[in-house]
Amino acid sequence: MDSHLDQVLVEFTCKNQPKPSLPTEWALCGEREDRLEVLKVSTFALVISPGDGQLVASAGCSMRLFEALEVGAIPVVLGDHSKLPYHHLVRWSEAVIMVPKPRITELHFLLRSISDNDLLAMRRQGRFLWETYFSTSESIFSTILASVRTSIQIPAAPIREEPAQEIPHKAGKLAGTDANMADNGDLDLGPVEVEPPYASPRFLRNFTYTAADVYHTWNRAPGPFHLFPHTPLDPVLPSEAKFLGSGTGFRPIGGGSGGSGKEFQAALGGNVPREQFTVVMLTYEREEVLMNSLERLNGLPYLNKVVVVWNSPKPPSDDLLWPDIGLPIVVVRTEKNSLNNRFLPWDAVETEAILSIDDDAHLRHDEIMFGFRVWREARDRIVGFPGRFHAWDVNHQSWLYNSNYSCELSMVLTGAAFFHKYYAYLYSYVMPQAIRDMVDEYINCEDIAMNFLVSHITRKPPIKVTSRWTFRCPGCPQALSHDDSHFHERHKCINFFVKVYGYMPLLYTQFRVDSVLFKTRLPHDKTKCFKFI
After folding, report:
1. What is the set of domains in the chain, with CATH numbers?
2. What is the pLDDT at residue 475?
3. Selected catalytic residue, list 447, 484, 514, 525
4. Rounded to an integer, what distance in angstroms lies between the CA atom of residue 320 and that of residue 326?
């Protein structure tokens, strides 16, 4: 490796009076703005720990560390006796390089041996740590409280839920009487559910766990340790946990019913054999389309209730007869027409699983059930049906939104997708407001914003199920997505979201999920069962 390719800036004298410092540490030179300008064009920032071995931290070292993290430079801490803030909670090794002072002669070799991908990941993680824990007085105070709360095992406060102002409505004919509305696909779902609707059990555990606990239950508000899988909140959390700080512990694993054929179709099976989901359907002045979509949900297994987000300023027609599907249909009044209303954490949603669906989306029951089964094995992901991807435009040096057929995808549209209710909380109250403002400005891109958020949190791509590419009902009124300006706006959204996040969080995946026995010839009395392939 040729050291002449690298530029190193070391100042031994200050142009102005240096900041006061301890006798054994290096002083800060120049004004903060000048130091940040240098760090913005730097890959690494050297932080020399105090010469006193008994001094594990100092104001000067902390200032150098935070300034480097703020602009995305990788701090290189010289002196392994230093203790970084919240070292017992935060994995600093994913954002900071610590080198013992006796190895100073090897420093250049060590830095040059780090790959570009690792450098980029460390810079992103460092910026994330600064934004989450140290950027404002509020985040610093929240970090202190979360640290104390974690140490003494006090659960976090319940998350904020959006009160649902229900619009009264009256049911009409019993759904299911129209043979044309029956749409169960080629899978006989059978009598899979005989119990009334029940909510997902909450607060099953606090900080106790067993080796069998894998799935998280997100029913409490996060502290600052909630947005990334690489910042552990509690040192005792098992490695399977990908979301942290909710304070409710983990959902205990049950026993799958196993079997195949009728035994499989008659129960959810899997690790949590008793669970339901909620359909959240956004609608705007398409009453006939909405009624048909609701009627198609009649008899859908494991459906807890339907929450209709009424996005129109006009109330439903007085003579509108809603279908009786045997389950509650909650019609929620919104304050304004906004696509962000789709992702509000409504208190009417009492399940962890949400199926977000457009009022003109046409899904068969067997497809919905398959998507639900897949989501239950990948609860931290968006699991849905229409796939899309992003691409880099070399000529214009910008990102593009693409809906063409492709061997890769990086987004699953939330017009037909399962996700965890906790993401609705993050989208509405934690995600930067600028993103929601752009969604309101364009009346577009809320699905892209949710994919950005989940990929940023999990560092995983979404999961697509089934081979179908479009799910619009035949004969429905033309949707906004048919307008040419729709795609131009989505191009702009992607590039704006990248600026907000500081990088492109979307990740590609090259597979979809089909059933184990997909296209397998079976005896007539056997039923398909599902698994990842």
Report:
1. 32-151 (no CATH), 171-236+272-513 (3.90.550.10)
2. 52
3. 447
4. 18
